[in-house]
Amino acid sequence: MTLLSVVVGVLVLTYVAFPHRGEDVPGAPWLGQAMRRGIERLPARETDEEPLLRRR
Predict the structure, then answer these.
(1) Distance, CA of 17 to chain centre
(2) How far is Cα 25 from Cα 55, in angstroms, rounded to an integer?
């Protein structure tokens, strides 16, 4: 379980450091592309729902 937590943490840090900012991951551009595709497939929260969520 600890290893899984470390791997997920490294992937999140890698995404925030590179693909989220529009840059390729050095040494592994395929990883950045895979992360972008995965994020694009996730459902996004609509911006018009944001005020409703703040009221809760």
Answers:
(1) 10
(2) 38
